[in-house]
Amino acid sequence: MPFFENNFARLHYYEYGTGTEILIAFHGFGMRGNQFSKLENALGNRYKIYSFDLFFHGETILIDDTVNTIRKGLNAPEIAHTIDDFLTSIGKKNTTFSLLSYSIGAKLALAVLQTIPQRVKNAYFIAADGFETNPILKICSSKHINNWMLKLVYNPKVLNYILNKLHKYKYVDDALHRILSFEFSTEPYRMISYKTITYYSRLKFKRQHLAQLINENNIEAHFFFGKTDKLFPAGIAQRFGKLLTNPNIHVFNQGHELINDDLNTYLKNLV
Fold first, then answer.
1. Which of 7, 34, 107, 192 has the highest CB neighbour count under 10 A?
2. Are 121 and 219 in contact (CB under 8 A)?
3. Helix, strand, coil share of the chain (percent; to 5)
4. CA nearest 231: which of 103, 123, 93?
5. pLDDT tens-digit series, residues 27-36
6. In 140-198, beta strands by DSSP E
């Protein structure tokens, strides 16, 4: 299995495709980098895809994963410079590349885009987090609630009660409820969930600034959202699209779980 390591992290990644352009990919919560194997058929002829396991997922690790580091949170330059180091290591120093991301992985893609926008050619955001703050995740990122969340790691009954209520009132759809139920099923998994929510919640972006970077650098940005997705609804893309010179918004009659055969077929005709 291929790895890349610097003084910040040891990244595990998957390689897909035979194309000449570089595509850096970040998967969703509870997944691994192989999530994007489903899209290789659509993207692989154009791109060489490097799909990374996110922090606290798969085989990727932080060099310093202490509680203090987790609570301090990830900042945009850290991940952007790590991806830059990776590209240098494979002989692609200062080259342009494209970004592919799903759900929480979009926060990492936005961190890269914000830090080195002049290097980004295209960006594909699927059911993307980061453009608008999710109300529940915003609450979880507060210091008081974050301390309470750590206690929930050791109290699964309360956590499952909250999750089931969110499902009952359709704030999370069936697919996401299934994923989260699995991720909350054991204490080690719940600790991973806590670390992920805490560490990534510090990545915050200003929509106007992101739009300015995309417009000024002529980045071709595509947004794919599910019509029935309650976690990151399609309205996010529609509102952000108003700030762009050339918005490319694609809405599917589906929920949050969009990495599937339908998207693969759609991308074949798009890319």
1. 107
2. yes
3. 45, 20, 35
4. 103
5. 998 899 999 9
6. none
Q: Which residues pair with 62 in a beta bridge?
A: 9
Pairing of strands 248-252, 220-226: parallel
Tokens for 141, please give them: 């990122």
pLDDT digits (tens, 9 = 90+) for 45-62: 999 999 999 999 999 999
Mean pLDDT, the chain, as a whole number? 88
Measured CA to CA, the distance from residue 143 to residue 198 in angstroms comes to 10
pLDDT recorded at residue 183: 65
Quickly tell me which residue has 């699927």 as its tokens: 126
Distance CA 111, CA 129 (A): 12
- Locate the domains of the chain by residue range: 3-133+203-270
Question: How many other β-carbons are positioned within 10 Å of the β-carbon of residue 64?
Answer: 12
Superfamily of the domain at 3-133+203-270:
Alpha/Beta hydrolase fold, catalytic domain (3.40.50.1820)
